[in-house]
Amino acid sequence: MEVRATDIYVATFPRSGTTWTQEMVWLLLNDLDYAKAASLNLVDRYINVGISIWGLASRAKGAKILKFKEEDKRKYKQIITPGCELLAAASDPRFIKTHLPMCMLPPNLIETAKIVYVARDPRDVVVSLYHFYRLMPVPQFTGDFKTFWNMFVRDNVIRTPYFAHIKEAWELRNHPNMLFLFYEELKNDLSNTIKRTAKFFNKEYTDEQISVLCNHLNINNFRHNDSVSLNFLADVFIPGEEPFIRKGKVGGWRDYFDDEMTVECEQWMAKKLKETGIQFPVFSNDVTKK
Ligand code: A3P
Hints:
Layout (H helix, E strand, L loop, with lengths): L7 E5 L5 H12 L4 H6 L2 H4 L1 E3 L3 H7 L13 H8 L2 H7 L5 E4 L10 H4 L1 E6 L2 H14 L9 H9 L8 H9 L7 E5 H6 L1 H11 L6 H11 L1 H4 L36 H18 L14
Parallel strand pairs: 1-3, 1-4, 2-3, 4-5
The chain binds adenosine-3'-5'-diphosphate (A3P).
Adenosine-3'-5'-diphosphate binds next to helix 1, helix 8 and helix 14.
């Protein structure tokens, strides 16, 4: 896969704030062109490099036929076509979204292109992923949260292992081509995180412009924004499940973990944080400390 110096990557473990970051990055690099952003869905503005669950679903033998409205067929084609095919034909600058870990991306990527990586508290990630896999017709998880958690922590959920993914990007966090962000930083201080991101791309905006962008990115507006949502997939999502843009909270995991899961998770996180040296801004690495 060819890497170009003008490529811009947004890389994450799924459910870590990818969509939110994609919109922020795209707007910062496109002179805050809200009209253009509104006219093009993120699936048209970014090429997704990696495994397309939809692509697998549409090809799997015996998979139920995913039916799309006529006007949504083009967007659907966009999400099932392998990213590397779309990349070759794309003009610069190419905006690329990926859930692949760094080790599965081209080795010259970090020296050549710019990467914004976003990490999120794994407890909130697992809850969000659970809801997402219940919403999706594939893999269409139908069990309860505890079952999902047990699979996640044992690396039996598609996209895991979680910590290995973060670690590879974390190790590159001081590279000038890497901006390493946390979902919790976006939540706690969006304006400052936007400023850091703008600086990373050598862009300058006034406080007034940043304040407008904060408002645009606020989840209460974001969830009604058709050009960032996956509303065009509404007909194939499992009815009654929580939406793609869901709660957008820090610490929502507390409503899902029982005492047994909490203890197991604390032990898992303490071990992995020690092994990897990753430091989250929201909690001390002694995760048992309240
Ligand atoms: P929750 O399920 O915890 O609500 P991704 O884009 O990587 O799939 O991440 C999805 C998560 O980001 C979901 O988390 C979603 O609600 C949250 N999210 C999306 N847009 C957001 C926004 N503007 N502000 C805060 N969180 C947002």
